[in-house]
Amino acid sequence: YMTISARGVTHFINGEAVFMTIPEWEREVNLYSKITHIPFFKKYKEWKNFSLWKNLMRRTMISQRKEFLNNELFILNPRLARPLLEIRDITFSLQRLDMVLVNFDQIQTLEQFEAQQEEQRQDIENQLDSLEQDIKDTVVASCTASLNAFREDNRISTHENEENDADRDPFLVGDDTKKQMPFTQEATTRTHYKKLSRFVKLVDYLVIDSKLAHIINSTEKFSNILSHDYNKKDSAMAQRMGRVQDQPLFHIELHNDRDQLVYDPSLDRVTSCAKAAVFKSMSV
User: Is the per-residue pLDDT at 172 higher than 50?
Assistant: First the structure.
C-alpha cells in the first residue's frame, strides 16, 4: 500500500518502505503515462494474447492436418502404401505397351500389316488381362490384410474366432462380463469398409488413367512414325523408334492406267487401314 503526505509518497512492500518526494513521484507518474501511450506497450497485452492464440491455433491445425493425412492418405498407411506402389508400378508397365506394332525389319503389304495388328491386339489383350489380374490379387490381399489388422487393433471378433472370444479382453474397460457388442463392432467395421472402398476407387482411377495414357502415347508414337521423314541421316526420331535402315513401311505398287499413274493401295486405303488399327486397338 501507499501513503501520501506533504513531504512525499511512501510505498510499503512486504514490510519494507520506499520513500519518494512529491516531484519525483509526479515525474514517474508522468513517464508511466507517456510510456503506456506508446503503441508497443499500449497493445502489448492484446498482441501477447493474439500471439498465444495464433501459435495455439497453428499447432492445433498442424496436428489435425497431420492426423487427417495419416488417416486418409493411403501412401502413408503402413499396410496399404506398399500395395499402392506395386499397383502403380504395374500401371507404368501397362503404359509402356505398344498398342500398334510397326515392323521396321521388312517392307509389308497392308494385308500383312493388318494381320500383324490382329496378333498384336491379341497379345495386348492377354497382357492386359494378366496385369489386371495382378492388380486384383494385390487389392484383395491388401484389403484383407488391412481389415484383419483393423479388427485385431479394435478387438473385433469374427465368425472364425468366436470360440476364443472368452479369452479376449472386454470391449469396454472395466466390463467384467466380457460381453461383445456386435452393433458397435459392425459400426466400427463399416468405417473401415468405407476407407477400403476409397482405396479400391483410387486403384480404379489409376488403372483408368494408365489406360488413357497408354492409348495417347501409342497413338502419338504411331502418328510420329507415319509422318516423320526417316531418310534424314541425323534423325533422332529414327534412332528413338529403332529404325536403322532407310526403307518404306508398306509395299506400294505404281500402275499406269490410261496414261495415269495409280498407286496400289491408294493413300485413302493406307490412311483408313492406319485409322482402323488405332481404333480397333482402343477397344481392347
Answer: no
Which residues, including other chains, have CB under 8 Å from residue 83's CB and lie 6 or more apart? 138, 139, 141, 142
Longest dimension (CA), the chain: 137
Percentage of the chain exceeding pLDDT 90: 23
CA distances from 111 to 67, 163, 235 (A): 61, 68, 29
Contact partners, residue 232, CB within 8 Å, separation at least 6:
238
Which residues, 6+ apart, have CB-to-CB distance to 245 below 8 Å?
104
Asked if the peptide bond before residue 265 counts as cis, ω within 30 degrees of 0, the response is: yes
Partners of 18 in the β-ladder:
11
Q: pLDDT tens digits for 19-61?
A: 888 888 889 889 989 988 898 888 888 999 999 999 999 999 9
User: pLDDT tens-digit profile of 50-94?
Assistant: 999 999 999 999 999 998 888 888 888 888 999 999 999 999 988
| Look-up of cell digits 517392307 | 107
Residue 121, C-beta contacts closer than 8 angstroms, at least 6 positions apart: 280, 281, 284
Smallest Cα–Cα separation from 113: which of 104, 122, 102, 121? 102
pTM of the predicted protein model: 0.64
Burial degree of 100 (CB within 10 A; 0-12, 13-18, 19+)? buried
Closest alpha carbon to 130 in 186, 122, 258, 113: 122
DSSP letter assigned to residue 259: S
Encoded amino acid at 72, one letter: E
Which helix (H) or strand (E) covers residue 82, if one does?
Answer: helix 81-95
